[in-house]
From TrEMBL:
UniProt-annotated catalytic positions: 263
Keywords associated with the record: Oxidoreductase
Protein's recorded name: Aldehyde dehydrogenase domain-containing protein
CDD domains: ALDH_F5_SSADH_GabD
Native organism: Bionectria ochroleuca
Domain Aldehyde dehydrogenase, chain residue ranges per copy: 25-486
Pfam families: Aldedh (PF00171)
Length: 493
């Protein structure tokens, strides 16, 4: 399979299957490797090193040594490297997208979109690098002057998920490198190849040796995570993934009080009010739910539709979903690809079965898709959902829709907030006052109004409650990697 991808890459050197430490492509000290699969075909793409704590410490030490000089570089220089890296990503979009498409299963159109999204963070933080202003603070003491300035924290560990393998890396390391931190990346075991390709381009953009290090692992992820959390040189850890793992990392980081950003699970409400433009709502919903095969942290998971338009919305949705082609990401016009894991199919099916057992009516799909080797399921729509069902509490992370009915604004706010997590949310309404009222009342970090995608490098991304803390992207993203130092000056002579 590797040769299949290789023959189609314009830049063959972007295909790497080794870790990257201290500017060199390396194997695991143990010599162990693991397989990377294409979830659409279950073909083995290649193997990469199964790195462990020993390899991780080497990566941290490389980043720590590089930090001594990297922190002295000017923000203008770091901005130039970031901008060049962004340009190189865009120039090699087709190659990066091909790798993403095969290791993750996303469609080529979405993979192209992810490359642009990933590059946008590098460009954005190139701009932010030079905007990390300090301030002059009026002192209460006439003999003193006070000012603040910002400095990089140190080594930053960037742990990325498999659903957006490169965009989640650049959202973290773009900010870190702009701030003057050096980095150790831990890509998801399922999707290391696009990150390795990204590092080739970073090297070409001019980043000094040791600024970027990559530890690849699948089975030893707990060991690698612990090494990142417990090493004193790591002063920042940014993780995107499950709430369960986020809590574990937070515990481990407590020993050194390592600063954390956590972008964890969501269970986004998608609320359709009866004054909404239903055509626009269906378009927004299609993106919110089916983008990336339903595998985004902000995917619409609980779909609340106001009673008066419930039947109409359900019918229009089924009609729309029937037009969405399912297949391997490389096939033309496919909108929904495979799920990335076998266990994701099992989870989605368990949600469907649970809903059916409790009175939910499957009006489209409802089963795995036959005729493929990979992890495909039929896009599914279930109506008459109730809050006792599994889908109310758990992220389905698949192209499965459950429609809940509601009557009043107060009722839907209370339903939407009855949840341990609070990442994204979506509202469809034509009423400005309703928009404000609901947006302010929802316990979430992000609200989309008549849109289905919340992603934009300039908009802060993050959640509340058990969706974690910290903000990525936007003007706040770089602050996560900086300390504010204050200086009091005696001017009394
Ligand atoms: C995520 O799923 O965590 C990221 C989605 C996005 O940035 O669009």
């Amino acid at each position: 399979m590797a040769s299949n991808i290789l023959t189609r890459l314009t830049r063959k050197d972007l295909f790497r299957n080794q870790g990257y430490i201290d500017g060199a492509w390396v194997d695991a000290a143990s010599g162990k490797r693991f397989d990377v699969y294409d979830p659409a075909t279950l073909d083995n793409i290649t193997t990469v090193p199964e790195m462990d704590a020993e390899d991780t410490v080497k990566a941290i030490e490389s980043a720590s040594a590089a930090f001594k000089t990297y922190k002295q570089t000017t923000a203008r220089q770091r901005a130039r490297w970031l901008r060049k890296w962004s340009d190189l990503c865009l120039e090699h979009t087709a190659d990066l997208a091909l790798v993403l498409c095969h290791e993750n299963g996303k469609t080529l159109a979405e993979a192209n979109g992810e490359v642009a999204y990933a590059a946008s963070f590098l460009e954005w933080f190139a701009g932010e690098a030079e905007r990390t202003y300090g301030e002059v603070v009026p002192s209460s003491n006439s003999k003193q002057r006070i000012l603040t300035f910002k400095q990089p924290l140190g080594v930053a560990a960037c742990m990325a998920p498999w659903n957006f393998p490169i965009a989640m890396i650049t959202r973290k390391c773009g900010a870190a490198l702009a701030a003057g931190c050096t980095t150790v990346w831990k890509p998801a075991g399922e999707t290391p190849l696009s990150c390795l390709a990204l590092a080739v381009l970073a090297q070409e953009a001019g980043f000094p040796k040791g600024c970027i290090n990559i530890v690849t692992t699948l089975d030893l992820v707990a060991q690698v995570g612990k090494a990142l959390c417990s090493h004193k040189a790591v002063r920042k850890l940014s993780f995107t993934g499950s709430t369960r793992v986020g809590k574990l990392l937070a515990n481990q980081c407590s020993a050194n009080l390592t600063k954390l950003s956590l972008e964890l699970g969501g269970n986004s409400p998608f609320i359709v009010f009866d004054d909404a433009n239903l055509d626009k709502a269906i378009e927004a919903f299609t993106m919110a739910k089916f983008r990336n095969s339903g595998q985004t942290c902000v995917t619409a998971n609980r779909v609340f539709v106001q009673s008066r338009v419930y039947d109409q919305f359900a019918q229009a949705l089924v009609k729309k979903v029937k037009t969405l082609k399912v297949g391997a990401g490389t096939e033309p016009d496919v909108f929904i690809g495979p799920l990335t894991h076998e266990r994701a199919v099992a989870k989605a099916m368990s949600h469907v079965e649970d809903a059916k057992a409790q009175g939910g009516q499957v009006i489209l799909g409802g089963a795995p898709l036959t005729g493929y080797n990979g992890y495909f399921i039929q896009p599914t729509v279930i109506r008459d959902m109730s809050t006792k069902m599994l889908m109310t509490r758990e992220e389905t992370f698949a192209p499965v829709v459950g429609l809940y009915r509601f009557e009043t604004v107060d009722e839907v706010i209370s339903l939407a907030n009855d949840c341990d997590v609070g990442l994204g949310s979506f509202i469809c309404t034509e009423s400005t006052s309703r928009m404000w009222r609901v947006a302010e009342a929802l316990d979430v970090g992000m609200v989309g109004v008549n849109v289905g995608v919340l992603s934009a490098c300039e908009s802060p991304f993050g959640g509340v409650k058990e969706s974690g803390y910290g903000r990525e992207g936007g003007r706040h993203g770089i602050d996560e990697y900086l300390i504010v130092k204050s200086m009091l000056i005696n001017v009394s002579d």
